[in-house]
Amino acid sequence: MAAIETDYLIIGSGAVGLAFADTLIDECDADVVIVDRHGKPGGHWNDAYSFVALHQPSAFYGVNSMPLGNNRKDSIGANQGLFELASGPEVSGYFDNVMRQKLLPSGRVRYFPMADYTGSGRFRSLLSGEETTVSVRRKTVDATYYGTSVPATHRPRYAVADDVRLITPNALPQLWIDQTIRQSDKGIDARPHHYVIVGAGKTAMDTAVWLLSSGAPPQSITWVVPRDSWLLNRLRTQPGLEFFHETIGGQADLMEAFANAQSVDELFLKLEAADIMLRIDPKVKPGMFHYATMSKGEVATLQRITNVIRLGRVQSIDATGLTLDDGHVPMGEGTLYIDCTASAVEPRPAMPIFNGSLITPQLVRAPQPAFSAALVAFVEAHYPDDDTKNNLCRTVPFPHTMDQYPACNLVNMMNQMAWSQDPLLSKWLLRSRLDGFGKVIAAIDKNDAEKMAVLSRLRGNAMAAAGNLQKLSGF
């Protein structure tokens, strides 16, 4: 058995693990070992469907030291006029560059791909079976805590009969090649006549947009939606002073809604009225919010699908059709089912990020996992004890129900307040690539009365917002 030593053992080379490592080696003289089951850096991006893209601008994603994308705006498509969204292949290539152009050349990072961490400072090569023991001088960092799930690695929770044709979104672009082979070899038409998308999250939305953009007629698509979702308007997430009124003005509208809403339902309606939240069907009240972020152009595309099934979750699929919580829906021959039920963020209990020799990076600002990991690394490098670190890095609970949204934002605000009162951390935030809005506020000309009025409204509602969020959270 091989034996090595390191200061920090990081489990996982996805966005969280790489963002943590990138900031850590910039902020302190530490040796790092990174272990991951994948053959390349990037975590779940290695398993994602080919047409996936970021929800939010590339400017806010990745690691601190290396920009993602070219800081350009899209001139065509549903994201026209807004800043670019890196595609899945772009993100995968970016993380590979982070590893090979920044981390490994530093001489302080060793990377072990295709390796399964088995616990207690040990990992096993998936190719050779060789085991390695790691003696960790400082901390182990579990960058896999949220257990991100994607369709390719997800097992559906409903029963599927053997004669049902079920695929994941990963298989869609290759489906036509398989059909060509089947048609030429067997003389049959394998083209689906009906597409059924199972799931209501961002993956399902991506799949629907891809099918429609690729030429599938809207009437050929059925969408199984257990719960409709509120969507964050991407216009409100743009970087730079150019979008000041959309972003910082949006934050001011957000604080005003936080301060005045009498219930969670009223809060979301106020945010919809302020053009911060969107919904696909204006006649249906959404029942969830997972920070899925869309442009109005994408929403308009999704609204072309009119055959939507709202009968709860799928329990089983067989040759006769779909059995759901609240009924059975028959389906004909030639139906292709597309499973989009994987959850990007599996429910996990919030826990202290710093706990002795273990660091468990979690959200310290929702919904930004990369920024959160970078900030956690900075705090690890510069602050003396777990109590101090955890006070600066309260874990933000990801909202898996609408009722959890107020608590999520309350902890966001508590963290932001703690950071603003810490001179060292405030200075780091201003130079952090991943913290875009702070730079926008810092760049405002104090003589610009219009922008200063927006800031005054934002700050003027903050205290009332925090108090009302506490009430809405049930604290």
Q: Roughly what fraction of the amino acids lie in strands?
A: 15-25%
Q: What is the number of E strands? A: 20
Task: Summarize the amount of helix as a percent range.
Answer: 25-40%
Estimated structural class? alpha/beta
State the distance separating the first and last CA atoms: 51 Å
Give the low-confidence spans: 180-188
Cα gyration radius (Å): 23 Å
**What is the general shape?**
globular
Biggest sheet details: 8 strands, mixed
User: What is the count of helical runs?
Assistant: 14
Average pLDDT metric: 93
Question: What can you tell me about this protein's structure?
Answer:
With 475 residues, the chain is α/β, with parallel strands linked by helices. Helices cover 35% and strands 17% of the residues. It is built from 14 helices and 20 strands. The strands form 4 sheets. Strands 1, 2, 3, 4, 5, 6, 19 and 20 form an 8-stranded mixed beta sheet that branches. It has a 5-stranded parallel beta sheet with strand order 8-18-9-10-14, covered by helices on one side. A 4-stranded mixed beta sheet has the order 7-15-16-17, with no helix packed on it. Helix 1 (15-27) packs parallel to helix 8 (369-382). The longest helix is centred in the middle third of the chain and has 17 residues, at 244-260. The radius of gyration is 23 Å and the shape is globular. It starts with a strand and ends with a helix. The model is unreliable at 180-188 (pLDDT under 50).
